[in-house]
């Protein structure tokens, strides 16, 4: 937005200039939180902002003449910057002139000379009074005290300055009046009117009666800036009708307080020829025109002089490059910034004028940014598409300013804009399933497996923490079996695992980042418990109390191969740890019996003679684990008188068959088959998941 206020130059400090809050349409209470601040383009502080009232105040008393000199307009340019969102407002304050200066002549007394033979209509230029005020408060008119011979004439110069001249209206007679005393009064147009006076003394001389005459008296020359030093500006055309010394003219610059003579440093005047040449480089941006007053004076006695006025107007050339000013920059910018978000406020200046000072700003089309014109010579750099820090963590932005001159001048400014991360990427595991193995009876705290997830975000948005999720699949919460290091994802056992109770666990693992809001991911670790030989064989038949023996009778004349009994044992372990073998413990004396190693059948090994005493056998059952575990049973075999006992009946078991004798072998085959089927199923499941 652009605001415009006006304030008289005599206003006291602390006076209100304008209601910023009302004119900007913002709440006064928000000015402090939005960090409203005032920036003067001239670098001088003349104003301040009352944040409590939202009013622009005068900070110091203004002097329009000191600020703007003789400029017809006097404006002070300010910039108001507000944040959240970032906004730039331009304020232009017109300083109004008041009639605080009275007209004043360069000298309190002006002495003029005129020949007595001067013709009516002869003009005597007077010093121009100066009044620092402008407009209606500047010099309005001049007045001359009444005189029979002289009257006042006022000419208007090309720049609007009024030049008083005394005009001879009646022929002079030096013998009657040699000196005329007049009073010249300069009046301004203020209210009330202020004035200044100067005494004018006119000496009437005799002799040289033709002054030099400049043709034309007021002329104008156009000249390009930066012309080489020594370039001819013009040659004055002055004539003097007198002859000899009275017609020999010398030229000189005429300097007054109203024309302080800056041009004398830039232009040189040949006193003999009247040629005016440059003697220093000319700069349009410093001044676009110069008013030069020249005095043409002859060598008569008394000398007479004429006056020429030359206006030199400079033609601008494109000799200044544009200037880029980065007023404000929001750095860094969030990667989720919506299109149209203001990134920076950029101003551009070019000291040239016209087309040479018209500047276009450009930014690379490959960047997700664009320039939007706020108002004259001010632009906003805004986002023009989505940002992704994971693809580009920052941008080197080059702003290019090109003017419309010929040849064009180009300026560019590069600044780096970092992109701030937002939590827009969830942690991700490399696989939705993992497999791990752990020995049963492993000590609590044993490392089982380490999961790892990745997050392309950075900082706290990429800081990951792992946890075990309870999905309710097991009867007992999974956290009672396993725990996980939340920092590195290593899974540990909480207690010793029992293969015979649980052979596999599904451990759901979750990971989440530390962003806001937090994002998460999951995976499942299948933990297989490896069997350990921690269970000794158990004899299920015959059932004998601990410390007792099993008594079995057989016919006294039983033949070799006769089935005495069968030992049946089981092992809670699996695989090799459950493979059982049967054998007789060695004794001091040989016994006519043997035990089948795999089936556990006790048979007569050799023909029995008369068996009077019972035989005591110790049958040992041993598994195939490492170390091997075993169990034993004591069998006492006694002869049976006059009977042939059917072993099947004596055991209350079905008749022995090959199927019964190979029970253990079948059990082993079944376990191996089940294990193979399980492995194949898990392999198929894993392949399908992948």
From TrEMBL:
Residues 6-105, 106-214, 215-324, 325-429, 430-539, 546-656 form the Cadherin domain. It is a single-pass type I membrane protein. One of its GO terms (cellular component) is plasma membrane. It is found in: Cell membrane. Keywords: Calcium, Cell adhesion, Cell membrane, Glycoprotein, Membrane, Repeat, Signal, Transmembrane, Transmembrane helix. Gene3D superfamilies: Cadherins (2.60.40.60). The keyword Cell membrane applies. The keyword Manganese does not apply. GO terms for biological process: homophilic cell adhesion via plasma membrane adhesion molecules. The chain crosses the membrane at residues 663-687. One of its GO terms (molecular function) is calcium ion binding. InterPro entries: Cadherin-like_dom, Cadherin-like_sf, Cadherin_CS, Cadherin_N, Protocadherin/Cadherin-CA. CDD domains: Cadherin_repeat. Potential calcium-dependent cell-adhesion protein. May be involved in the establishment and maintenance of specific neuronal connections in the brain. This is PCDGM protein.
């Amino acid at each position: 937005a652009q605001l415009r206020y006006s304030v008289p130059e005599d206003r006291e400090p602390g006076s209100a200039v304008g209601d910023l809050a009302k004119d900007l349409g913002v709440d006064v209470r928000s000015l402090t939180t939005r960090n409203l601040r005032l920036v003067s383009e001239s670098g001088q502080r003349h104003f301040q902002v009352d944040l409590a009232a939202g009013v622009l105040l005068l900070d110091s008393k203004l002097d329009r003449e000191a600020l703007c000199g003789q400029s017809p307009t006097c404006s002070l340019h300010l910039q108001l910057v507000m944040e959240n969102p970032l906004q730039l407002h331009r304020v232009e304050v017109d300083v109004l002139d008041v009639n605080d200066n009275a007209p004043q002549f360069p000298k309190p007394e002006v002495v003029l000379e005129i020949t007595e033979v001067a013709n009516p209509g002869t003009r005597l230029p007077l010093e121009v009074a100066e009044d620092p005020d402008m407009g209606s408060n500047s010099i309005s008119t001049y007045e001359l005290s009444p005189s029979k011979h002289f009257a006042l004439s006022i000419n208007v110069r090309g720049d609007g300055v009024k030049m008083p001249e005394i005009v001879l209206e009646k022929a002079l007679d030096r013998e009657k009046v040699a000196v005329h005393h007049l009073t010249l009064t300069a009046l301004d147009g203020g209210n009330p009117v202020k004035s200044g006076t100067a005494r004018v003394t006119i000496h009437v001389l005799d002799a040289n009666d033709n002054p030099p005459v400049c043709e034309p008296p007021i002329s104008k020359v156009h000249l390009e800036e930066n012309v080489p030093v020594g370039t001819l500006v013009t040659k004055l055309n002055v004539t003097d009708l007198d002859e000899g010394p009275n017609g020999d003219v010398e030229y000189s610059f005429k300097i007054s307080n109203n024309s302080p003579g800056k041009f004398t440093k830039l232009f040189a005047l040949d006193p003999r020829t009247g040629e005016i040449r440059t003697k220093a480089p000319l700069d349009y941006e410093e001044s676009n025109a110069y008013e030069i007053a020249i005095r043409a004076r002859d060598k008569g006695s008394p000398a007479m002089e004429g006056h020429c006025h030359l206006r030199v107007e400079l033609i601008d050339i494109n000799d200044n490059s544009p200037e880029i000013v980065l007023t404000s920059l929001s750095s860094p910018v969030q990667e989720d910034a919506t299109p149209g978000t203001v990134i920076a406020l950029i101003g551009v200046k070019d000291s040239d004028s016209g087309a040479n000072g018209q500047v276009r700003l450009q930014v690379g089309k490959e960047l997700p940014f664009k320039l939007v014109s706020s108002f004259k010579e001010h632009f906003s750099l805004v986002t023009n598409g989505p940002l992704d820090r994971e693809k580009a963590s920052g941008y080197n932005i080059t702003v290019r300013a090109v003017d419309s001159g010929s040849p064009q001048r180009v300026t560019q400014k590069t600044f780096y804009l970092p992109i701030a991360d937002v939590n827009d990427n969830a942690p991700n595991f490399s696989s939705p399933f993992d497999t791990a193995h752990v020995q049963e009876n492993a000590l609590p705290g044993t490392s089982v497996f380490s999961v790892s997830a990745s997050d392309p975000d950075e900082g706290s948005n990429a800081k990951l923490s792992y946890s075990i999720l309870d999905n309710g699949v097991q009867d007992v919460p999974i956290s009672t079996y396993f725990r996980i290091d939340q920092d590195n994802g290593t899974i540990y056992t909480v207690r010793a695992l029992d293969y015979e109770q649980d052979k596999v666990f599904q451990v759901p693992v979750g990971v989440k980042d530390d962003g806001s809001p937090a994002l998460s991911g999951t995976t499942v670790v299948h933990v297989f418990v490896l069997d350990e030989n921690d269970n000794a064989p158990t004899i299920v038949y015959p059932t004998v109390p601990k410390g007792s023996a099993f008594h079995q009778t057989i016919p006294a004349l039983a033949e070799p191969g006769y089935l005495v009994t069968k030992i049946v044992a089981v092992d809670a372990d699996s695989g090799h740890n459950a493979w059982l073998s049967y054998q007789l413990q060695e004794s001091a004396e040989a016994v006519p019996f043997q035990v089948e190693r795999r089936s556990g059948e006790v048979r007569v090994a050799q023909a029995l003679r008369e068996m009077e005493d019972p035989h005591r056998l110790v049958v040992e059952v041993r598994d195939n684990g490492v170390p091997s575990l075993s169990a034993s049973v004591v069998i006492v075999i006694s002869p049976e008188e006059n009977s042939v006992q059917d072993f099947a009946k004596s055991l209350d078991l079905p008749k022995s068959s090959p199927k019964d004798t190979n029970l253990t072998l079948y059990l082993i085959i079944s376990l191996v088959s089940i294990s193979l089927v399980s492995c194949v199923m898990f392999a198929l499941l894993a392949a399908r998941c992948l």
